[in-house]
Design a protein that fits this description.
9-stranded mixed sheet, Rossmann fold, 8 helices
Length: 238
């Protein structure tokens, strides 16, 4: 377990990381992508609660629930909320995404977010550590199960936002549509202008009408190899 407390930017939220869920650029970018006017959100597979923390930090009208199967990560997530004075607007629960029907009423949240495992189980060499392997592979929840859970938790018009791998975009859009989550917005992320996308951010609407919008491509670096203006904005370095 990582005991070091970090600060994402000067004066920003302070947090500790669970060993199996270290903070990555994908989570920071997802929090920015999902930001909006939601009032009741849930992070499915919340790890140490970083996504909830970032969204709460930027929206004082929002309350967040985190659902995580690993007990040690849940304890850290609760700690992170408390040390930032956000415990009154957040709760971190231990539970299985596949059993959300036993935990919540349908339509309980207007925003569902997730940074799920990117790879099907058995699609490559597994990490030797079981917790890290579970964070990388769909061991405890498949993409289809995740989308079904999100659809159950959202009312008509509610938003589902997640980050995924571009090579599985077709699977993602099919799983969302099958669950009744109409894909409405996509954002591709590239390291530089000459690189292929390495991340895709997607938003679906429960019961939404067809119509998909592509956001301008997000580049991590500019032509000189420095952080792009958009990354400096997201990380509060502008």
């Amino acid at each position: 377990m990582n005991t070091e407390t970090m600060e994402l930017w000067p004066g920003g939220p302070r947090f500790r990381q669970a060993a199996q869920a270290p903070l990555g650029t994908d989570s920071v970018l997802l929090a920015d992508f999902a930001a909006g006017k939601a009032t009741r959100g849930i992070d499915l597979g919340c790890g140490s609660g970083i996504l909830s923390l970032l969204l709460l930090w930027g929206n004082d009208k929002l309350s967040m629930t985190g659902l995580e199967i690993a007990e040690d990560a849940v304890l850290i997530a609760r700690e992170n909320l408390a040390q930032n004075g956000l415990a009154a607007r957040g709760q971190m629960l231990q539970g299985d995404i596949r059993r959300v029907r036993e935990l919540f009423r349908t339509g309980s949240f207007d925003l569902v977010i997730a940074n799920p495992p990117y790879f099907p189980q058995g699609s490559g060499a597994s990490a030797p550590d079981a917790l890290r392997a579970a964070a990388r592979e769909e061991r405890s929840c498949t993409l289809e199960e995740l989308c079904a859970a999100a659809a159950y938790l959202l009312p008509t018009g509610g938003r589902f936002c997640l980050v995924y791998r571009p090579e599985r975009l077709s699977e993602l859009l099919c799983a969302m549509t099958e669950a009744g989550l109409e894909p409405k917005r996509l954002l591709l992320c590239c390291h530089r202008a000459s690189s292929a996308p390495n991340l895709v951010f997607a938003e679906g609407r429960r019961g939404g009408k067809p119509g998909l919008k592509f956001e301008p491509i997000l580049f991590l670096t500019d032509s000189a190899g420095n952080e792009s203006a958009e990354i400096r904005r997201i990380y509060h370095r502008a």
